Amino acid sequence: MQVVKATKLFRQVSIILSMIMAIGSVATVAAHKNTCSSDIQVAVGLVSAMWIIIFILLLLQVIGMVKFIKQYPKSLFVFYFIVVGCIYVSMMMLFGGAESDCNTVTPVVCCRVKAPAMWYWLIINVCMFYLICAFGLASWG
Q: Is residue 103 pLDDT above 60, yes or no?
């Protein structure tokens, strides 16, 4: 009984959080101009796509389409590959845009200074992704 309650809570929290994070990511990209030579907008777009995919999968579970999901077990492998790939590429873009020395003569790629909202939003997205993973593992473990 505890597992059922934990799974239901996990789905509810994850579906709401994934929608909030997806909307926030789209709004963050739409509100900023390209102020950074790094592709931080692409990274935020990837994270937004990841949240939308997670939302769709959880929505299918909530509306009772589990049979449809179980019919194609290889699609779940593709889903997890896409999610891990999105977060990996986004993290590499995030850390690639973090020059340790932003006060040089030409701080071209210092996205922390030129686009701080996108920079911190991406950090929040990555942290939320790992919190959801930890929450999911803790509820079933």
A: no
Query: pTM, whole model, 2 decimals?
Result: 0.79
Name the residue with tokens 């911190």. 120
Q: Is the model's pLDDT at 8 over the cut of 60?
A: yes
For helices 40-62 and 116-140, angle between their N-to-C axes, nearest 10 degrees:
30
CA distance 36 to 113: 9
| Rounded Cα gap, residues 131 and 12, in angstroms | 15
| DSSP collapsed to 3 states, the chain | CHHHHHHHHHHHHHHHHHHHHHHHHHHHHHHCCCCCCCCHHHHHHHHHHHHHHHHHHHHHHHCCCHHHHHHCHHHHHHHHHHHHHHHHHHHHHHHHCCCCCCCCCCCCCCHHHHCHHHHHHHHHHHHHHHHHHHHHHHHHC
The domain containing residue 134 runs over which residues?
A: 2-140
The total number of structural domains that make up the chain: 1
Closest CA to 44 of 27, 61, 19: 27
Q: Encode pLDDT of 82-99 as tens digits.
A: 888 989 988 888 777 555
